[in-house]
């Protein structure tokens, strides 16, 4: 059973996440032949102040100067 974990910065619409899950599932089915019913997708959303690139956070928490 393939299990895929995807970490995203929070804020995307449910519709966008639904599309992501469907397309990732289809990619797994077509690439390795897994049955669609066996594919599991876990979305983890983090606030932008918990995500950094090159030592810089994407944003500061609300109310933090």
Uncertain residue segments:
none
Task: Bin the strand percentage.
Answer: 25-35%
DSSP strand tally: 4
Q: What is the end-to-end distance?
A: 46 Å
Largest sheet: 2 strands, parallel
Tally of domains: 1
Please bin the fraction of helical residues. Answer: 25-40%
How many helices does DSSP assign?
1
From the spread of the alpha carbons, the general shape counts as elongated
Task: Report the structural category.
Answer: alpha+beta
Architecture (CATH level 2) name: 2-Layer Sandwich
Radius of gyration: 15 Å
Assigned CATH class: Alpha Beta
CATH superfamily: Macrophage Migration Inhibitory Factor
Whole-number mean pLDDT: 95
Strand order of the largest sheet: 1-2
Q: CATH fold name, please?
A: Macrophage Migration Inhibitory Factor
Order of helices and strands: EHEEE
Explained architecture:
The protein has a single domain (3-57), classed as Macrophage Migration Inhibitory Factor (2-Layer Sandwich), CATH 3.30.429.10. The protein is an alpha+beta fold. The mean pLDDT is 95. The radius of gyration is 15 Å and the shape is elongated. The longest helix has 19 residues, at 14-32. It has one helix spanning 14-32; strands at 3-9, 40-46, 52-53, 56-57. The strands form two sheets. A two-stranded parallel sheet has the order 1-2. Strands 3-4 form a two-stranded antiparallel ribbon. The protein is built from one helix and four strands; from the N terminus they run βαβββ.
Give short descriptive properties of this protein.
29% helix; 65 residues; single chain; alpha+beta; elongated
């Amino acid at each position: 059973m393939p299990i895929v974990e995807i970490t995203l910065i929070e804020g995307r619409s449910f519709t966008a996440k639904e599309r992501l899950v469907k397309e990732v599932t289809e990619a797994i089915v077509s690439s390795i032949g897994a049955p669609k019913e066996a594919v599991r997708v876990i979305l983890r959303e983090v606030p932008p102040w918990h995500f950094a690139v090159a030592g810089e956070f994407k944003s500061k928490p609300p109310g933090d100067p």
